[in-house]
Design goal:
The termini are far apart. This protein has 142 residues and is of the alpha+beta class. Helices cover 15% and strands 28% of the residues.
């Protein structure tokens, strides 16, 4: 073993404390709230109580929650226009979706009129704007 590595393992201050206890560090609660390698804030997840109470946040503490909101819509396929670009799908609940050819090929199942389709969008639940949202996943069931 090299002298530097031996020094790090045997030293009682600095990095030497981390050497034998590295497994304990990665099993700690500090690393427990990681999401895909990023340490996420718990500001909007409800796990931290606001000092003002009632869900209000002081102006000096903006949220740093990086989770991406999603909305799931389910309905029967009422309109399917495959020969257009982009491919248009309309569901019985009023949801309209436009797929590129590659996105359409990634749909789980075979879309056809009358089948039930579930579409997951990247969108906040309270957002009622008429803007398009990114489609995360589409599944067709019987």
């Amino acid at each position: 073993m090299g002298k530097f590595k031996e020094y790090l393992i045997n030293e009682e201050v600095g990095l030497a404390d981390l050497g034998p206890q590295i497994d304990k560090l990665f099993q700690s609660h500090w690393f427990g709230n990681q999401s895909g390698g990023a340490i996420t804030s718990t500001g909007d997840t409800g796990s931290i109580q606001s000092p003002l109470g009632g869900g209000e946040r002081p102006l000096s503490l903006p949220t740093t929650d990086i989770t991406i909101p999603s909305v799931t819509r389910t309905g029967r396929i009422t309109t399917l226009l495959v020969n257009k670009n982009p491919i248009y799908v309309s569901l019985s609940d009023g949801t309209e979706a436009h797929f590129t050819y590659d996105e359409y090929r990634r749909i789980d199942g075979e879309p056809s009129v009358g089948k039930v389709m579930t579409i997951t969008f990247q969108r906040h639940r309270e957002d009622q704007a008429r803007m398009y949202s990114r489609i995360d996943k589409a599944i067709v069931t019987g």
